[in-house]
Amino acid sequence: MSSDAPPEVLFSAAEIAARVDAMAEDIAAGLGRDLIAVPVMTGAVVFAADLMRALWYHGVAVEVMPIRLRSYGVSYHAEIDPQLALGLDKRIDGMTALLIDGVCDAGHTLERAVAHLKEHGAARIASAVLIDKPQRREAPVKPDYIGFTADDVFVAGYGMDAAGRLRHLPYVGVVKA
């Protein structure tokens, strides 16, 4: 990050809250009431918590099984193909899994996470991302539920980091490298 100034707001806390609630309503209508929530740690931690609470308000109580995939390290671009650092702790045979991530850009993390859920027996897999950057897509994936679409900018805040920093921000901001 070029300075200690907070990043410029791309999506405000109020915009995010409204969009997360709308996503939860759509997910409840589309996937039913029996889901395994699979947040991709660590970037999805804040979004996943808010989405899971919003799902509850829409009549969906989820079981939670996080996974962890790493590819960014401390840079602003993926350094390696996503590596599974923490997988599911049990099989989910016959269940519907809702994969939750903060950002889908190149799509490799989503692709790897979906493969992991299939390996563990998920009958149905849907994905929810807060921010989609389709112009950066390299893998043949498309999120099922999208909060916002963004240009090719580096974002941080609301759980997502910039070289390990800024996860705590209540909004999503644009980070200038």
Explained architecture:
The chain has 177 residues and is an alpha/beta fold. It has a single domain, classed as Rossmann fold (3-Layer(aba) Sandwich), CATH 3.40.50. Helices cover 25% and strands 31% of the residues. The chain contains 3 helices and 10 strands; from the N terminus they run βαβαββββαββββ. It has helices spanning 13-31, 45-57, 108-119; strands at residues 8-11, 34-41, 61-64, 67-70, 83-86, 96-104, 124-132, 145-149, 154-156, 172-175. The strands form 2 sheets. Strands 2, 3, 4, 5, 6, 7 and 8 form a 7-stranded mixed β-sheet that branches. The chain has a 3-stranded antiparallel β-sheet with strand order 1-10-9. Helix 1 crosses helix 2. It is globular. It starts with 7 loop residues before the first strand and ends with a strand. The model has no long low-confidence stretch (mean pLDDT 91).
What distinguishing features does this structure have?
single chain; 177 residues; alpha/beta; Rossmann fold; seven-stranded mixed beta sheet; three-stranded antiparallel beta sheet
